[in-house]
């Protein structure tokens, strides 16, 4: 009887999680960091789709464009290639502390390889000064109505998004899903994560906004935004495996460098200039196709997605999708994605040899 009750409880929990919709937010940390790097001049944080919102940003923050944190952000961008997802990784590693922010204590930080600890500490100190001096919270609260409407519209557009698929596919059930909309982030989307001590790992999809009505209202078409949401959440389950394992890193570095050299032009167009990004993006994009297959999308849609990824430089996409199909049907041997990684390293080694020929 006890086993039956346990099984029933597990079924109920799984069913509830599958039916629980994702609720988006406008995250103050995301807006703060994106505005700082906008003022610093990073191109990926200077897209101009949200014209009305950007006008408000410029009007409020123009007097603070020479603040020390802006100068330091410029220095980091120039000297350490700071930008894109690295910015958002630090943002989600912060928690509100009085009238500012502090680092979230972690057991194993996935900031390693993205931020030098001394740089991160200095940057957060300067962020707090900027936050107070610029009256950032006043700006944030003044746009509450705009933010509320954006999250409502976004949530309606992604209704039916399947959270449970990720838990089953990756074998990692200890996660807390979070969606943050970056209204000024343009067409850039990011998938950072953070694991506070004593808490579930928080997996984020930080979604950009690149379609707007004439009155400045963001438009979130399901056929446009849902695929990007699926993509970004995959990052939160994939990236940390390579980033936190020196053994896997050493096994993949040779093949990763070969593939990057062969596809450097295409990868640069996508914003990927290191082999870690190439490997992680390969796995994420192939897993998006697996999501499509598992959710019974048409063969035409699946073929189009594979073709699109091949055009972007991931010419091994079809073979990788097939290999991940073997992973899905061998879960007794590979209960988690991480356990399957030796097969993946072999795949990339073989692909690198073929591309060298």
Q: Largest beta sheet: what is the strand line-up? A: 1-4-6-5
**Which radius of gyration do the C-alpha atoms yield?**
21 Å
Indicate how many domains the architecture comprises.
2
The separation of the N and C termini measures: 61 Å
Mean pLDDT: 92
Strand-residue proportion: 5-15%
What oligomeric state do the depicted chains represent?
A: single chain
Q: What overall geometry do the principal axes of the alpha carbons give?
A: globular
Tell me roughly what share of residues is in helical segments.
55-70%
The main pleated sheet reads as:
4 strands, mixed
Number of strands: 6
- What's the total helix number? 16
Note the run of SSEs as H and E: HEHHHHEEHHHHEEEHHHHHHH
Question: By helix and strand content, what is the structural category?
Answer: alpha/beta
Q: Runs with pLDDT <50, length 5+? A: 1-18
């Amino acid at each position: 009887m006890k086993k039956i009750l346990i099984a029933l409880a597990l079924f109920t929990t799984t069913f509830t999680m599958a039916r629980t919709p994702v609720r988006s937010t406008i995250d103050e940390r995301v807006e703060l960091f994106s505005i700082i790097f906008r003022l610093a001049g990073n191109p990926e944080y200077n897209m101009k789709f949200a014209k009305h919102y950007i006008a408000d940003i410029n009007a409020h923050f123009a007097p603070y464009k020479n603040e020390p944190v802006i100068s330091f952000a410029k220095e980091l961008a120039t000297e350490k290639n700071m930008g894109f997802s690295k910015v958002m990784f630090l943002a989600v590693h912060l928690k509100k502390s009085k009238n500012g922010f502090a680092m979230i204590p972690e057991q194993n930080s996935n900031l390693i390889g993205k931020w030098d600890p001394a740089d991160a500490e200095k940057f957060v100190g300067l962020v707090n000064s900027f936050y107070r001096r610029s009256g950032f919270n006043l700006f944030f609260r003044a746009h509450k109505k705009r933010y509320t409407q954006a999250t409502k519209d976004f949530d309606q557009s992604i209704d039916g998004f399947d959270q449970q698929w990720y838990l089953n596919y990756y074998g990692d059930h200890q996660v807390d899903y979070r969606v943050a909309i970056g209204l000024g982030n343009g067409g850039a989307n990011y998938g950072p994560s953070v694991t506070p001590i004593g808490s579930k790992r928080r997996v984020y999809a930080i979604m950009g906004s690149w379609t707007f009505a004439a009155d400045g209202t963001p438009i979130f078409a399901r056929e446009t935004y849902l695929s990007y949401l699926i993509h970004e959440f995959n990052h939160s389950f994939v990236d940390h495996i390579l980033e936190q394992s020196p053994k896997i890193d050493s096994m993949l570095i040779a093949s990763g460098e070969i593939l990057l050299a062969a596809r450097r032009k295409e990868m640069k167009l996508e914003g990927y200039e290191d082999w870690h990004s190439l490997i992680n993006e390969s796995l994420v994009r192939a897993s998006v196709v697996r999501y499509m297959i598992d959710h019974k999308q048409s063969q035409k849609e699946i073929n189009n997605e594979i073709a699109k990824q091949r055009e972007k430089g991931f010419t091994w996409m079809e073979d990788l999708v097939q290999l991940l199909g073997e992973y899905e049907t061998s879960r007794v041997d590979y209960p988690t994605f991480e356990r399957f990684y030796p097969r993946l390293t072999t795949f990339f080694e073989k692909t690198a040899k073929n591309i060298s020929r």
